[in-house]
Write a structure and sequence with these properties.
The complex is a heterodimer of chains A (494) and B (958). Chain A has 494 residues and is an alpha/beta fold. Chain A has twelve helices and 22 strands. In chain A, strands 4, 9, 10, 11, 12, 13, 16, 17 and 20 form a nine-stranded mixed beta sheet that branches. Chain A has a four-stranded antiparallel beta sheet with strand order 5-6-14-15, with no helix packed on it. A three-stranded antiparallel beta sheet of chain A has the order 1-2-3. In chain B, a hairpin with a 5-residue loop joins β9 and β10. The longest helix of chain B has 28 residues. The two termini of chain B are 71 Å apart. The chains are: A alpha/beta (494), B alpha+beta (958).
């Protein structure tokens, strides 16, 4: 790294520097100008007036922005289990169901989402008390169960829809309709990112495919495209990182020709921020071309790490691939990426590829849990060991829960939006707490009922964002992640 | 459940009532101003006061305090504290129900005071309130259009027509001057992108440069407006607003195959300059106006298909409500610039739209269903006649062909099963039912797209239309794709098929209304020949007569074994036939295929996804148990109410008539503003779909009214507004941020605005004012605000300058992904040819899936309405545009086409000249020429093209 004076900068950089009164910078191997510190380092952005959306400088959409108040968490990893994980087979122990096994639910609904209801069915896995808290957690997820003392459960969540599409929209965007910004987009819009060489927001699809509501889960809705989640995984790298079939020499020639064209153009159109921003974006892209391959190269991970995550499991390639995604998530967090979404479960497939256990719940959950459990638990442990959990929030969520009875003529449970469990751990979260409750059969939330709005409001709060102040004007409404709802779940805050 | 403190207080007050409280030594009856308001102020006003009114409740204004509050109003019942929700909320024992929701809540004493006050009659004196309820109707956009005179300006030379006088007057007010006129070539490039979304060709650039006639500018504008490319460009703007897409959205996101006729309608309407009032009416009630496809507007949103909606009643109701909500939202936003849908759950917080208004609006469209309907155009009628004729010919061909299929079980080896179509012929037999049992497939659960059964001289007896019914062993149901009823619906293809719920097996039974003689079964997995999985490879066909006994008539045992590698097998085996017989078969088979292909095409021609109309649902103001809500226009803007008996189409007609009149204060203003926005990047009202009280105020209110008036006076001609705008001096200004335009017109009269911006002003030395500091957003239009091209314009232009743009108009969209709809996992098409080189407005728009290269350039995903494209700049855009295969392929094509045009043996300089002229509409400077040549000599034209495509000059409006 050689210090350079402003004269060595590209005109794009120089314009920014002139404007920002910056004095020095460094160059990259590619010869483009590193605007990293420039873009990341200055806190000149005015804090927004209450209720008026943030003003995003187009030249620096990802630069870190101050939170509304000091947040406990800086980064977030969301483990998103698509298809609706049964609370009754995982975190919400209902011994009463064992007694009621195979009996009809008196006064229960005749018809639920997919059709006629059958008899009540006991939890399909054994439960046992875990850790210091002695909380009962299922044998389905033994590795995650070992972390019970660190987790803060909310057992009384509700969704506004019992259909996967709208419900995943609701979980991810706060609205059941299509087209609203996702949680990660809101967070990166609010806070920017700590690393200007990588996308601020990364969505990592399950190796078996993208979740049921696909890109809606990481879409920017009506926020600027800059805040869309970039998808990458251990299997599929970021698109268009390099030009296929073009030699390095030709590539460099085209790049430097473009730089000169834009430089001359900018000289003819001085003071135009938009032009300068585009020039800067090519320089950032060049940095990304260097950073992303380094990021995605798991070759530097020692064998014991691969083993801890299960990334070396040759008998279960889906698990190994998910484990690699988990390692990728940790590497992203290590590098200061603001928001990482890690999907477990793919699209609608009769429960074969995700947690939608309508027909053969146990048979299918055996498969899905084997993919989720060890890698996800290893991720949390690894984050803690490296001290990253100090300022990283880990969220585990699913779009809704499942019914205490089986569907008529099947061995699976139907959709249940009236009471289900999600949890958080890490920065700012009170460990080992179980908040809220469903009824004794686990059908409906009865104590401290929290629509998912509250869960999302709490996530924002942990990041130092007030869900009522993080707004964006769209077609006449100051839109929020939480619409006009949302109360903090203070009971799970440290 | 009655909170404990309350019991105590109630007892106390009941006791105290008849006797003077003073005499009793207790607190005197609470006074509102002295005792009550401070408590409310302390605990309630933060959420239920002047700034926030959570759950619609406001407690700082008398009228509102007694009447507002969603769900729980009235909250204060004078004399009845025990029944008053206000008291119940503050005194609730359960913390989760208590108000305020956070903190310790009210003290027992405070609760006692409020309770005593309510029980004493809740006396709230008049005139003590510090706040006042605003009249929400008192808002500029709800008032009738004014007819402002264009103002007189000090500089009388600059304005070319009224628009300029309005703009200049404002600039002069701010002591600013307009920028100099843009060079001719810059204006040409700007207006060309603006009106048709493509740059001028080098020939057009040269011709315009040479055209010194006084009306040269006007001629260019007329030429552009007459070009079919104009409609393609401007339709995209409209499609953004109405969030048009070719899939249904949500989880399943299946193809909406016949949505595109609406897109074509919009393109045609712009090209024809359909008067805007007519355009509005056609989209609301085109079925009554001879424009059937226009009502596609009503059903552009995402919608849950029947198979995705829960079987339980609440799910069904919610889905219907959501679907209707999207229609109301679309109408409110698009035509009126109002966010009506906020009033779905509560009275609009800022605008004078009540929940009652909202449901009254819903009632206008309560008979609209998302779905296809047969078109009633002459073209579609012809298509239907054609379909009937084709069906007859098809049946005849089948009858003839049947003679050539070997009888099953006759000892002849029959052809192997194939995915497309198979025939099982057997000796005529009486049957009441026919069972097709599958014992094995080549993969997964078996699929049959159609099962047809014929007698010696009959049509397809299995058709549901002929009264046949079907049952099965079990079904896999996927909305709009797999369903048992598709087995005998007379339609072919995977999207109209039955799939068993078991892998490798399953059965279906067709039952006729009465016993029939049958002799032939025709079946396939996909007659449209796209898919080859799920093929039944082992099966048996049985029939049962009225006596009910099953007997087998055909099975797979005498067929050749299934060979997945054999793609050519069809239903006929030619071995052993004479050449004449083989010829006859081939002819018949070919004819059949042609008929089937035409059938599919004709079917497309006569059905469109433009909504179905039926008896309207009864609309009620939800969850309030109110009586039926008849259709009525927004109460703040009119007083038209229809009777609940008004038939469906008349409801929409009445709505359309109300929206599309000059008297509606919003309609003309909103569209005039949109047109302005699409020319300048920002509207006079920045929030183009919100003219409500939360929207921004117009930067030039008089100009907006003048434009809206001019719009109406011109017969609602959009092209008239385009002409006015692009020929104005305002539009012709340079885009440069230079200091030439910064001089104050009259430094002696600084405006208050300016003084606020620079407190040291006026100072003779500060006469030069920097408009960047005063108006960096260029709202006052002291220059032309340049902007980046949209995704579509970039892609179209890359193709155009490479000589590859396919200008075929209209019809089914081309593919951006490997599939046209579906759950997820869309694989982008990376290399395009033929159809794929059409303008991007013709792409098959998959909701939510952003195109792999250009989607990052703020392409809307058609989830919610996009009134104005954001203009973001991201490194992902740079990666896409610099490295994608699309760019590299166009660069290569561009290089080849430039080389071809330059001619054999042309030197590199000539090629560089041509490359610049084509892409940027100008010759390179000597320095640019030198830069380019150095690269071209080593690497050819490819890298030059790639750099040009990525250059700012290429990507921005000049």
């Amino acid at each position: 790294m050689t210090p350079h004076s402003a004269e060595h900068l590209s005109p794009g950089g120089r314009t920014l520097l002139d404007r920002r009164q910056f004095l020095s910078q460094s160059a990259t191997a590619l010869g483009s100008i590193a605007l990293t510190n420039l873009l990341g380092g200055d806190g000149l952005l005015a804090s927004p007036a209450p209720g008026a959306g943030l003003r995003i400088d187009p030249t620096r959409p990802y630069s870190p922005r101050p939170s509304h108040f000091p947040g406990k968490a800086k980064n977030v990893v969301v483990i998103f289990c698509a298809g609706a994980v049964s609370q009754l087979e995982t975190w919400d122990y209902k011994p009463e169901l064992i007694k009621w096994d195979d009996k009809p639910l008196p006064g229960g609904p005749a018809v639920t989402f997919q059709g006629p209801a059958g008899n009540l069915a006991r939890p399909q896995y054994e439960f046992r008390p875990r850790g210091r808290t002695g909380k009962w957690v299922s044998d389905l997820i033994p590795h995650l169960a070992e972390l019970t003392d660190d987790l803060a459960f909310v057992h009384s969540l509700t969704s506004k829809s019992n259909t996967h599409g709208p419900a995943e929209n609701f979980l991810s965007t706060g609205f059941v309709l299509d087209g609203f910004p996702s949680l990660g987009s809101w967070v990166t819009y609010g806070l920017g990112s700590e690393n200007q060489n990588l996308p601020a927001y990364v969505a990592i699809p399950d190796p078996r495919g993208v979740p049921q509501n696909g890109s809606n889960n990481w879409g920017p809705g009506f926020l600027p495209a800059a805040f869309q989640g970039t998808t990458m995984s251990s299997k599929d790298p970021v698109r268009h990182l390099a030009a296929p079939g073009i030699s390095d020499a030709e590539d460099a020639a085209a790049r430097s020709l473009l730089q000169r064209m834009n430089a001359r153009h900018l000289e003819r159109h001085p003071a135009d921020d938009k032009l300068a921003a585009r020039i800067a974006s090519y320089e950032l892209a060049a940095r990304m071309q260097l950073s992303v391959p380094e990021l995605s190269d798991l070759g530097s991970e020692p064998a014991h790490v691969l083993k801890a995550y299960g990334a070396d499991d040759t008998r279960n390639p889906d698990k190994a691939a998910f484990a690699k995604n988990c390692i990728l998530a940790r590497r992203l967090i290590e590098r200061g990426v603001r928001f990482v979404q890690l999907f477990n479960g793919a699209y609608a497939s009769g429960g074969k590829l995700n947690w939608d256990g309508h027909n053969a719940l146990k048979e299918q959950y055996d498969i899905h849990a084997a993919i989720l459990d060890q890698p996800a638990a290893a991720l949390i442990r690894d984050l803690r060991q490296r001290g990253l959990l100090e300022d990283t929030l880990v969220v585990w969520c699913t779009e809704f829960g499942r019914m205490p009875f089986f569907q008529k003529g099947s061995l699976g449970r139907d959709h249940n939006p009236d009471g289900f469990t999600c949890w958080m751990t890490g920065a700012g979260v009170k460990p080992g707490v179980s908040h809220g409750a469903t009824d004794e059969l686990g059908q409906k939330a009865v104590q401290a009922i929290h629509p998912l709005y509250d869960f999302n409001a709490t996530i924002l709060h942990l990041l130092g964002l007030d869900h009522e102040r993080l707004t964006f004007e769209h077609n006449g409404v100051q839109r929020r992640l939480t619409n006009v709802e949302g109360h903090l779940i203070r009971q799970i805050l440290a | 459940m009655r909170p404990a403190p309350f019991v105590f207080v109630a007892a106390l007050t009941a006791f105290a009532a008849p006797i003077s409280s003073v005499a009793f030594g207790a607190t005197p009856s609470p006074d509102f101003v002295r005792d009550v308001r401070p408590i409310l102020e302390k605990h309630c006003y933060e959420c239920h006061g002047p700034t926030k009114q959570k759950s619609g409740l406001r407690l700082d204004v008398k009228h509102a305090a007694f009447h507002s509050g969603d769900g729980s109003a009235p909250n204060i019942l004078p004399g009845r504290a025990a029944d008053s929700p206000l008291i119940q909320f503050i005194a609730a024992a359960n913390v989760d129900d208590r108000m305020p929701p956070e903190g310790d809540g009210l003290t027992a004493a405070e609760i006692a005071t409020l309770t005593a006050w309510v029980d004493a009659g809740a006396v709230w004196p008049e005139g003590v309130d510090t706040a006042q309820l605003e009249d929400k109707r008192d808002h500029w956009s709800f008032k009738p259009l004014t007819s402002p005179e264009p103002p007189t300006t000090r500089d009388s030379a600059w304005p070319r027509h009224p628009i300029d006088r309005f703009v200049l007057a404002k600039l002069e007010q701010e002591s600013l001057r307009p920028s100099p006129e843009a060079p001719r070539d810059a204006w040409l490039r700007r207006v060309s992108f603006d009106l048709i979304g493509l740059p001028p060709s080098p020939a057009q650039v040269a011709a315009f440069a040479a055209d010194r006639r006084p009306d040269a500018y006007e001629r260019v504008v007329e030429e552009l407006l007459a070009s079919p490319r104009y409609g393609e460009r401007w339709a995209q703007h409209w499609l953004d607003v109405v969030r048009y897409a070719d899939t249904h959205g949500f989880e399943v996101n299946t193809e909406r195959p016949n949505a595109w006729p609406y897109r074509d309608y919009v393109i045609r309407a712009f090209n024809r300059d359909t008067p805007y009032d007519r355009f509005v009416k056609e989209q609301l009630v085109g079925d009554a106006l001879g424009e059937d496809t226009a009502t596609g507007f009503l059903v552009t949103a995402s919608v849950l298909l029947p198979g995705q909606i829960g079987k339980d009643e609440p799910s069904k109701r919610l889905a219907r409500q959501d679907a209707l909500d999207e229609i109301v939202t679309n109408i409110g936003q698009t035509f009126l610039g109002l966010s009506v849908s906020c009033a779905r759950c509560h009275d609009h917080k800022f605008d004078p739209i009540s929940a009652k208004d909202y449901y009254a609006m819903q009632a206008f469209v309560a008979g609209v269903e998302y779905g296809e309907r047969p078109l009633r155009t002459p073209d579609a009628e012809a298509a239907r006649r054609e379909i009937a004729a084709l069906r007859t010919r098809l049946a005849a061909a089948d009858q003839e062909l049947a003679h050539f299929s070997p009888l099953a079980g006759a000892g002849v080896v029959r052809p192997m099963v194939n995915a497309r179509e198979n025939v099982d012929r057997f000796a005529p037999v009486k049957a009441r039912r026919l069972r097709f049992t599958i014992r094995a497939t080549n993969s997964l659960e078996p699929c049959l797209d159609e099962l047809e059964i014929f007698g010696p001289a009959s049509g397809n007896l299995a058709l549901a239309g002929n009264g046949a019914t079907v049952t099965s062993s079990g079904d896999t149901i996927v909305a709009d794709r797999h369903d048992l009823k598709h087995l005998n619906d007379g339609q072919y293809g995977n999207t109209r098929s039955w799939v068993s719920n078991e892998s490798g097996r399953g059965w279906v039974v067709v039952e006729f209304p009465a016993e029939q003689i049958v002799e032939r079964v025709v079946w396939g997995r996909d007659r449209l020949a796209r898919l080859t999985d799920r093929v039944p490879t082992d099966y048996v066909i049985e029939v049962a007569g009225d006596n009910g006994e099953w007997r087998s008539v055909a099975d797979a045992s005498d067929r050749l074994p299934f060979d997945p590698a054999d793609k050519k097998s069809d239903a006929f085996r030619r071995a052993g036939l004479t050449p004449a017989e083989t010829d006859a078969i081939d002819k018949l088979v070919t004819e059949r295929r042609n008929i089937e292909r035409r059938l599919a095409a004709e079917t497309d021609r006569q059905r469109v996804f433009v909504g179905k109309f039926r008896t309207p649902d009864v609309i009620r103001h939800l969850s309030r148990g109110d009586p039926e809500q008849p259709p009525a226009v927004l109460s703040a803007l009119g007083n038209i109410t229809l009777t609940p008996a008004t038939p469906e189409q008349q409801r929409r007609q009445a709505l359309a008539d109300w929206v599309a009149t000059p008297e509606n204060p919003l309609t003309a203003r909103v569209m005039a503003n949109r047109i302005w926005q699409w020319h300048f990047g920002t509207g006079l009202v920045e929030t183009a779909s919100d003219f409500g009280r939360m929207g921004t105020k117009p930067s030039h209110p008089e100009l907006l009214d003048w434009l809206a008036g001019e719009f109406i006076r011109s017969g609602w001609s959009m092209k008239h507004l385009h002409r006015l705008i692009v020929l104005s001096a305002t539009y012709r200004q340079s885009a440069a941020i230079a200091d030439r335009g910064l001089r104050s017109v009259d430094s002696a009269t600084p405006s208050t605005h300016a003084s606020a911006a620079s407190p040291s002003f006026p100072n003779p030395q500060s006469a030069i004012r920097n408009p960047q500091l005063i108006d960096a957003d260029v709202r006052l239009l002291w220059r032309f605000p340049s902007r980046r091209l949209e995704a579509e314009a970039i892609r179209d232009t890359m193709l155009a300058v490479s000589g590859r743009l396919n200008l075929t108009m209209y019809g089914r969209g081309f593919d951006l992904f490997d599939k046209r709809g579906g759950l997820a996992g869309f694989k982008p098409v990376e290399s395009f040819k033929g159809e794929g080189l059409r303008r991007m407005v013709y792409a098959h728009k998959v909701r939510r899936e952003r195109e792999a290269v250009f989607g990052a350039f703020d392409c809307p995903d058609a989830g919610q309405s996009t009134a104005r494209r954001r203009e973001s700049t991201t490194p992902i855009q740079a990666l896409n545009l610099f490295n994608s295969r699309f760019t590299l392929e166009q660069a290569e094509a561009f290089a080849a086409d430039v080389a071809r045009e330059a001619g054999p043996g042309a030197d590199a300089s000539r090629q560089v000249q041509l490359a610049y002229t084509r892409t940027l509409g100008r010759a390179p400077t000597p320095a640019e020429q030198a830069d380019a040549l150095a690269v071209v000599r080593t690497h050819g034209l490819g890298p030059l093209a790639r750099a040009l495509f990525n250059s700012n000059e290429f990507l921005f409006l000049p």
